[in-house]
Design a protein that fits this description.
It is a single chain. The protein has 214 residues and is α+β, with helices and mostly antiparallel strands. It has a domain at 45-160: Pleckstrin-homology domain (PH domain)/Phosphotyrosine-binding domain (PTB) (PH-domain like, Roll), CATH 2.30.29. The chain contains two helices and seven strands. The protein has a seven-stranded antiparallel beta sheet. Strand 6 (117-124) and strand 7 form a beta hairpin. It starts with 5 loop residues before the first helix and ends with a helix. The relative contact order is 0.10.
């Protein structure tokens, strides 16, 4: 009589397991796989932040949010240029679903009705061409969302200060060059006047010599 218990029925129908026997045979692998170095483009960057999240992109034509992928979102700072970019890859395929620079004008806003999510605008390059996108990212906790927003805003603020400093230094350098240039022009004018005065004096002296009787 068959049992109504699915687990017990599986046990009754399962054939008896054969005793494991060691035949001593050695089976060599058919294909030998060699290690292949994979470059991600992140080798020259330092990781400032790395969090798990789910990303959405706003579809303007459909007027709705569409999922881009679930994975790891990172903030990476280039070791030489100092530029910071936001990169997110899908967990299993590692396909890039967000890739853009963090700039001083970037603004993070908490998503209405969900304190685990935030939204922002960016010029994204994840599809191989620059596109103006509106992103929404959702984290597993409120803490991670706040950490992400605060870190991005902090980076943007620092970049803005650096730009202001560079602008002031450029203006100062331009002013100094202008003063040097004006000074050189003044000296050149004085030199020209001196030369003209000397030439005039020489000419007058020569004229007086010519008027003297022999």
């Amino acid at each position: 009589m068959a049992s109504n218990d699915p687990e017990r029925r599986d046990e009754e129908e399962a054939p008896e397991a054969a005793d494991d026997e060691d035949t001593g045979a050695h089976v060599a692998p058919i294909v030998r796989l060699e290690e292949v170095s994979v470059t991600t483009g992140e080798e020259e960057e330092d990781v400032l932040l790395d969090l798990k999240a789910k990303l959405y992109r706003f579809d303007k034509e459909g007027n709705q949010w569409k999922e881009r992928g679930t994975g790891s979102v990172k903030l990476l700072k280039h070791k030489e240029s100092g530029k910071v970019r936001l990169v997110m890859r899908q967990a299993k395929t590692l396909k890039i679903c967000a890739n853009h620079l963090v700039i001083p004008s970037i603004k993070m806003q908490e998503h209405a009705g969900n304190d685990k999510s935030c939204v922002w605008h960016a010029t994204d390059f994840s599809d191989g061409e620059l596109k103006d996108e509106m992103f929404c990212i959702r984290f597993g906790s409120v803490e991670n969302c706040k950490k992400f927003m605060e870190k991005v805003e902090s980076i943007a603020e620092d970049l803005g200060k650096n730009e202001e400093k560079e602008s002031e230094e450029t203006t100062s350098a331009a002013g100094l060059l202008e003063k040097l240039s004006v000074g050189d022009e003044s000296k050149s004018e004085e030199k020209s006047k001196d030369e003209a005065s000397t030439a005039q004096t020489t000419e007058e002296k020569k004229s007086d010599d010519d008027k003297k009787p022999e």
